[in-house]
């Protein structure tokens, strides 16, 4: 998948920096824009039909959350960017979905990029890039397509639950990011479950040849999740240290809270990573143990019957003068000898704990 | 277990930040509140029946230790928090038991979260979250349930042993944290014993197939203990550097002492961690050595008897003209040849040190 | 190849520092010089026939890009360097192709060295050293030979696309470096593909003995690419922090953008590196699994037929008194016994999941 | 042994911090106190019979070295500590032998704890804690028991060799610590010898099953030595940066010298550590090589004789019509065929380099 | 060899710090002193017969390079040191050859210690300690014995090539150190070649049992070279940041150049280190692959002939009633059956790709 991502990047190579080009897969999505415009007393929720309708919300006294879905509509996004006086590189990054989580601090707005992780129906991890522009009294959010983890945020704004309606745009950005980080917990919990399942399977020997493949896939997934989440710590850190009107002092405590959650997530990821690395070793010892079993069976069978066969071979020889052949009870005595040898062998292997 | 923890976290996803919800398992515990209120001259020890009784202790001249057990009683804790003017996020964190050890510095109190580790009857490590609020002349402590490592602290306050009765609340917090850190030593000592036992078992070959499982379990335990203890170093460090009336200069020497203990604990943990990693390698060589043994037995048996059987086979053939068959001493000569071969083989294997 | 590089270096050992000697392979290349001299209104593009023609461009008001190909022409480069008042060590470094990416800040120019990576027809990674001198209104670039990744840059200057014609020389340097960094994505993407192909081959068992060799080669390639790219981050960082007229404040945002790309590239490289390291482990388990298969076949064959052969051997003995030999149905009964044994064995191995 | 150490620690759990309790094993040692009191012109050397005799040396104009052996005599040490105005925690740490090397800076004295390492008769590493109190004109040293590495220091003071008699107490502390660090070299040299011996043994195959055990023991020893020595670097560093009358500027050069020695020691330790880690891999390949040898012998024997035995079996069959049986030279021809097969096999295995 | 080094150190343990004692092996070397005294206009080159003759060069206006070979002549070196007012510890370090590369900055001179590495005739790495004293207009260099890498430096001073004759003593020190660092490239190049040769040998299976030994030796050599070179980076760094008349601003650019070379050297060393670590893994897979081959041969032989031998055994039985024995074509039919079985087996193994 790294392959895919870089290919997307390559769509742009050779172009002038600042060229605004959508680099994702979802090029047939509709443009979906919703706006929440609220203060302590009221809350307007609206779906917009053209990007131009969003322009007015820049200047309202209320806090506005303008949520744009559909990064393939680059023209609309470019027009919006120009209206909100965004730097050309910001507009370029908005639609270039291979960004690493980062924050760019401009004079009158902050530009934050991060990854929204969520599980689809088959428990596969999905990655979607979400960008935020935090202005004095608005937050713009940009997603590739509809569908997100912000359901509870919408609910809280509508119903005025919690503090959100009494706070500024920096608090709005906080609850949006908090919703994303909360989802990280589910994702890594699922990864953890998969690792533990795999561990159990290896112990019980239920998977065989494909084990290395499954381990390798899990390893890659963990590395990818890690790469999507780790840089966010630095982003939050920068927000906490940001010195301007955009982030108020009292809100920083909340960002500190996200930071603590992120540390927890990343610590878990690193523990899972260590676990996966040792899975391969575990699998290796499992294989070796099995081979040991196989070898023991072979050795026991061969060690018991090869000498007996030799003895039988002796008396199958056609020499004229073999005195034992003519003795009447030879055959029965031989059986006795063989049975004694057989039992002796069994005892020997029992003592060595091979049986 | 990481799974469990994150599940607890998820109880909260989708809720407004600041929602005060207990995230632990122990939801049927009674609320148990005890208070120690003391100065140089006197010491009052009391069990409270409602949270409201604790409110008055905020203002006494004496140092007060209010110990609240039962985080499932969120209402009571919320009322207490409001009375003591705690930040909403602090109240939220108090009852959310998946916290990482941390310190939050507020204007007139410190909020410290850490993990109390202790061994249960089966020598399993138990983790319980303990939070402290350090105010000008009080310490609030919050535990999930009754039962803790503070027995000696209570004794010392009651009897006025040591310096505790002549010092302020910062010293009280110190002896509480010191009691917790002291317990860490027992816990990691037990872990160390388990590792050494496992090591011995592997050397002596007493455990077999389950070894990887036991190693993996120990690895996880060490990683979990590590995660519970490591961040505490940063917490103590922050207390030492804290600049306010809450932590007096003369007490900082004592916190430095805890810090030194913590460094010792964490160094031990890291050594155990390295030990465990090499256990898997050791186990692997043990397996290989065993397979070598098995292979040698097989090779010796096969190498000795296969050629002898071949010779017996030769004289079992039914050709009409095999001159040896008719010679009188053939059979005995053949036995001689076989015995010589047999002994020769034994000498050969002896020389190669396979016997 | 490290060998080759150091050998190149050795060409110089024993010489006075500052000796200007070309250390590369391509000693028969022509000197090819091209100039772009442009401002907002016009753009002159010219191929020069002697290095002296380039001297005048130092003083034009326009921004000049002088691109020199053919580092073997040390005399010409030395003359150019002297005319542009370059430090002797800079001139030495220009033609010494074993440089690490670095930046040297002089009073009135910056000297930047980096590696241009591109893939040749066989998808092999090629490394070419490119040096830049950034002066107040000119950029000198030095390459070993013609052929580069600057095609799109030329196009943009010619046609006045993007901002380039309205910006200063620092922006020109930026788009040149951006073109190089963009190419890194293709290179590491190809490396990533090779690693994934190898992974698939190992899983499917299509490559055998040579696998370690291929893995080792890939490992070396990744380490070499890493070494060529990693130091560049520090270079860009230093440009961003550079305090002089040469780098304007508004251009720094653009360098920040390159920096972000570099972080992405280097993160990918590190993930690939981890992947390669685990490939060897994967290959090892694959081998062990195969050996297990081989052993099982041997054990099954031997365990089934060795006892049966023993039984046949018994009745091949020539004792005079073996009662069974004379019983009429002995032979058929024996067949029955053998078939029962055979089937019993099969069931046993089936149960152990060896079949 | 980590176990033992923590057990010692636990002797104290539950006690008030500051409780002065000896945590070591050597509880039956006599108290042995010696004093050196010297200046440029004279030197008094004395053995004291009670701790109180030492009190006067605090105020003499000469430099005094008071060396106390026998940490089990806690009362005496407590009285001494009180007389020299030591902080309660310092007195506690003096007799608690599980300290990590550390320095505590107090207003008018420095408290330094480190580990004295020396080899006993069986070349085992012994660890003894040594604490120093550096005052304006005295050094107090505390050891568990008599016997140390300070012989040369005493000699130098007595005879006035070197600079010691003309320098202050900070120089005395330096030569004491220097004597300890010098001994580290012998200790790690011996560890290095053990590692190289083990390496040779593994190469030559002289040790077998116990190799993992020996490797693991060495690993632990190296880790323990490392832990005893590493923190000392920080201690020396702090002394060098210490700003007070206690450490004079001209003495710091000497501490720098100890620091350089310590870096050498720790670098060697880290190299030994890496060596040990690779020993296990080496041992593993040795085992695998041996198994290869065993397998080759088995395969050669089986591959040669199994087909020959088959041929003999063919002509041991009792079919009535086997034409070859009646031909006169069959037996001899068969021998020829078998010998050809045998030699062919040998050549084949020779070519594969198995012989 | 670490052993040897520490033994040397131990020669000194128990001695007063500052004791000037030669710790190397070469105690029978002659004292060889040469002087270069030069300025722009002239150059005197002289071999001195006693150390006292060197004293005058301290005060000449010219730049003087006094090169002393033969550290066993400690008296002479001590007299020289005293004349040049060197600190006692410096004189001690000059003749103690187990120093780590370091720089000590004194008020009117710099003391630099580093390791000269060069290859002897058998391509073994030789280590010789070289110390420099950089004074206002002189450089003292100290070597254990004659023979060094300074040939080109002498030539350049004699002939006035390059800038050396017009520069101060700091530039002289630079070209001396540059000569040493240039030699590092040859040394690590040779190490690199050895590693690649070993790699090829392992791939081709040409070395066998001794491979681990060779790998381990190489690993040690790389670690030793690394330890000799790494600390030098810090030394050069300190020279660059040194603030005094001794190092002129314009010379620092040159030291920067050495620094860049050192980074290149150390990066190569680290890559070689990683390569060596993976050699052991490679060797392990090679062994396993070989064992697989051996096992396949055994399994094929056994699987084919054991069943056939069983069949032959059946008809070797002496039952009176075996109907097949009397049927005329039985023997030939049996051969047919056996050949079919044989071919079937071959096809089976072909399909499994074992043949």
UniProtKB/TrEMBL annotation, chains A, B, C, D, E:
One of its GO terms (molecular function) is magnesium ion binding. It is a multi-pass membrane protein. One of its GO terms (cellular component) is plasma membrane. Its main location: membrane. It is found in: Cell membrane; Membrane. It comes from the Bacteria. It holds the Pfam family CorA. SUPFAM superfamilies: CorA soluble domain-like, Magnesium transport protein CorA, transmembrane region. The chain crosses the membrane at residues 297-317, 329-349. Keywords: Cell membrane, Ion transport, Magnesium, Membrane, Transmembrane, Transmembrane helix, Transport. The keyword Nucleotide-binding does not apply. Mediates influx of magnesium ions. Belongs to the CorA metal ion transporter (MIT) (TC 1.A.35) family. This is Magnesium transport protein CorA. It comes from Aestuariibaculum marinum. The lineage of its organism: Bacteria, Pseudomonadati, Bacteroidota, Flavobacteriia, Flavobacteriales. The gene is corA.
């Amino acid at each position: 998948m790294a392959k895919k991502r870089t290919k997307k990047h390559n769509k742009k190579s050779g172009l002038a920096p600042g060229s605004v080009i959508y680099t994702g897969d979802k090029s047939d999505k509709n443009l979906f824009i919703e706006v929440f415009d609220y203060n302590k007393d009221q809350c307007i929720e609206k779906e917009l039909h053209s990007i131009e309708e969003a322009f007015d919300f820049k200047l309202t006294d209320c806090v506005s959350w303008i949520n744009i879905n559909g990064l393939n509509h680059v023209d609309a996004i470019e027009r919006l960017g120009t209206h909100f006086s965004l730097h050309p590189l910001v507009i370029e990054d908005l639609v270039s979905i291979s960004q690493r989580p980062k924050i760019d601090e401009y004079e009158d707005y902050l530009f934050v990029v991060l990854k929204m992780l969520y599980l689809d129906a088959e428990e596969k991890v999905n990655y979607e890039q979400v960008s935020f522009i935090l202005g004095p009294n608005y937050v713009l959010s940009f997603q590739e397509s509809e569908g997100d983890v912000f359901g509870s945020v919408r609910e809280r704004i509508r119903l005025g639950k919690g503090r959100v309606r009494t706070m500024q745009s920096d608090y709005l950005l906080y609850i949006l990011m908090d919703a994303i980080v909360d989802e990280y917990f589910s994702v890594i919990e699922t990864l953890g479950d998969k690792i533990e399942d795999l561990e159990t399977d290896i112990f019980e020997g239920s998977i065989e040849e494909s084990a290395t493949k499954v381990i390798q896939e899990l390893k890659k997934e963990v590395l990818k999740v890690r790469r999507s989440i780790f840089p966010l710590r630095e982003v939050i850190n920068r927000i906490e240290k940001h010195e301007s009107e955009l982030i108020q002092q009292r809100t920083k405590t909340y960002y500190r809270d996200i930071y603590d959650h992120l540390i927890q997530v990343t610590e878990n990821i690193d523990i899972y990573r260590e676990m996966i690395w040792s899975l391969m070793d575990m699998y290796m010892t499992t294989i070796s143990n099995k081979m040991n079993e196989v070898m023991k069976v072979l050795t026991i069978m061969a060690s018991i019957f090869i000498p007996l066969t030799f003895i039988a071979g002796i008396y199958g020889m056609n020499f004229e003068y073999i005195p034992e052949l003519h003795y009447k009870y030879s055959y029965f005595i031989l059986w006795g000898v063989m049975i004694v040898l057989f039992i002796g062998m069994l005892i020997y292997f029992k003592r060595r704990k091979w049986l």
